[in-house]
């Protein structure tokens, strides 16, 4: 897809005209890379252990179903963190192609909305169990929890789905966008929000 097909871009970083380009990896980028690396190293085994115990070892209950789904959402997200880590480490050059750009953006949105929805329902579940025990005992069943979990996943996927269409990869020149400099290329592939012209 050619860059002239787009008329509106959304970038993570914007610079004023008189600002100098940042160095290849700034202090903020190092902090971001460090935090993401720690999240990946701890998140993959941590969430895998939670999924293993709640999904296969412990007896199924309403609470374990909620936390199992929350762990699955986080596990999927941390599995894709190496793509973002590489992206930042390479000075915001995206070497993985269009489909991983779309998929990575979709997974980030899916995780964000699924996590928010599951945390909301976990809080609501606790509230109903403590304040309205009669209602809770009647409707707080494994079947209803599984149905709600399915609805949450579908809702999160629908909300995140536009990323599969609007995210794309385009080639840009560093000087025009003030992207961090590197010694191995004068052009960058960036994963961006690209809105096509109508007609």
Automatic annotation (TrEMBL):
Transmembrane helix among keywords: yes
PROSITE patterns assigned: G_PROTEIN_RECEP_F1_1, G_PROTEIN_RECEP_F1_2
Chief localization class? membrane
TM segment ranges: 30-53, 65-85, 105-124, 145-166
One MF term in the entry's GO annotations: G protein-coupled receptor activity
Pfam families in UniProt: 7tm_1
**How does the protein associate with the membrane?**
Multi-pass membrane protein
Q: Does the keyword Cell cycle apply?
A: no
Keywords in alphabetical order: Disulfide bond, G-protein coupled receptor, Glycoprotein, Membrane, Receptor, Transducer, Transmembrane, Transmembrane helix
Cell location: Membrane
The name of this protein is G protein-coupled receptor 1
Q: Which organism is it from?
A: Pelusios castaneus
| CC terms in the record's Gene Ontology section | plasma membrane
